[in-house]
Amino acid sequence: xxxxxxxxxxxxxxxxxxxxxxxxxxxxxxxxxxxxxxxxxxxxxxxxxxxxxxxxxxxxxxxxxxxxxxxxxxxxxxxxxxxxxxxxxxxxxxxxxxxxxxxxxxxxxxxxxxxxxxxxxxxxxxxxxxxxxxxxxxxxxxxxxxxxxxxxxxxxxxxxxxxxxxxxxxxxxxxxxxxxxxxxxxxxxxxxxxxxxxxxxxxxxxxxxxxxxxxxxxxxxxxxxxxxxxxxxxxxxxxxxxxxxxxxxxxxxxxxxxxxxxxxxxxxxxxxxxxxx
Amino acid sequence: xxxxxxxxxxxxxxxxxxxxxxxxxxxxxxxxxxxxxxxxxxxxxxxxxxxxxxxxxxxxxxxxxxxxxxxxxxxxxxxxxxxxxxxxxxxxxxxxxxxxxxxxxxxxxxxxxxxxxxxxxxxxxxxxxxxxxxxxxxxxxxxxxxxxxxxxxxxxxxxxxxxxxxxxxxxxxxxxxxxxxxxxxxxxxxxxxxxxxxxxxxxxxxxxxxxxxxxxxxxxxxxxxxxxxxxxxxxxxxxxxxxxxxxxxxxxxxxxxxxxxxxxxxxxxxxxxxxxx
Lengths: 277, 277
Description:
Two copies of one chain form a homodimer.
Chain A: E1 7-13, H1 19-29, E2 36-42, H2 48-65, E3 70-73, H3 78-85, E4 90-93, H4 94-106, H5 124-138, E5 153-157, H6 163-174, E6 178-182, H7 185-190, E7 204-208, H8 211-221, H9 230-246, E8 251-253, H10 259-270
Parallel strand pairs in A: 1-2, 1-3, 3-4, 5-6, 5-7, 7-8
Pfam families (chains A, B): Kinase-PPPase
Function (chains A, B): Bifunctional serine/threonine kinase and phosphorylase involved in the regulation of the phosphoenolpyruvate synthase (PEPS) by catalyzing its phosphorylation/dephosphorylation.
Protein name (chains A, B): Putative phosphoenolpyruvate synthase regulatory protein
């Protein structure tokens, strides 16, 4: 087989899940638009033997494609790093590069211990995170209004504007207790926030969305319904935005944003500074 | 103020959410156990002006602490990078370092475009992810059994062993449709899987947990109940593990694992190779 210069295999090799490494690699690789990358994540390489087997797999790939694959590694163990580094590849040592830089800058040695990026199942932080997820599930879509006083933030907006995934992401990634509450035609007719929310005005954050996008999303769920019609979506979005402006609720449009971006903006705006899990 | 050498401020500066950068930084910093790090994430630095303001903030910190803070940057824009680099700090260019390495290795130039690490709200991948989250919410705790044939994986295990957070993480991070189904005393008395699950045996993955840990978790929800007693937890866990062995269901213990690790192991075991969001 001859080299196909615009497709390149990328191995993500990690002693843990490799999720951070893959997200990071995607971000770096997206800067090379002229090349199509095929990512293969190889998690839990926690022994030199597994590293040697991975090196073999990389060599086979290099041979078959007549082209050196890229390898992004977050391995900590130096014997394992060496095995992979010796394979026929372009080796990028995500972890070692910066540990080395930091050792130099701080003038101290690192501990070279493995798999410390995520918290295990017994720490306090972990319990907080699980508690936040449970809270968010119990307070999805206004279904359970007791306990709203415990919420860190309450997302409001029309049905299907992105409240649920954003709430769950906030809980999962930041251990934030995020409730969410729908704004519905009744609220617009009355022209005020649901009474339930009045005591928690300072915790409210609004999500909105382009009516055409909302109509698409609702049509997937209830095709050709009044609920999904562009007319209804235009009405609800205009009224929800008017209400949020009137009530001085900070809000943003989710239309072109990822769940990560929306969540980060929400935290910034409500002044929650949380560590990431 | 004199330098306090065992606490060090770390700025995470990103033109997007900074979540990947923070997770990555945590992993690198965890190698320096002798130092306590205080992380400050500064997201959405998307103009040289905002970068200049951030540089000022870094300088004030350096002055107050009489010590150069660490800065992990994933900024792409070169003018912005320059502003931060000129501040009084130890600058670690997460992004530029590897983009440069790749340019050298591949012999091509990168596009230097900003904020491409997460998908926006309109792509197909994004819809798949939202669809997976909705599926997982609808199929939590065996509450909705129609549609199980669409599931990519069905997690089984005793109540409170970690099925829900794992299912949600699988949906959120990998766009995997993850249902979950409880194993309850009735199933143990009958000595077989719930009949509903028989057609989907190949999609099942079991979660288990140490009885003492399970008892702790259940006691938080229903203190001093029979349900939370160590005796009951021991019984259910032993029976669930026996059932999973008998039915040849792959399973693992969640006790000392993070949601990330459990999810990654599940994917590996059921042979789902998914990209990370």
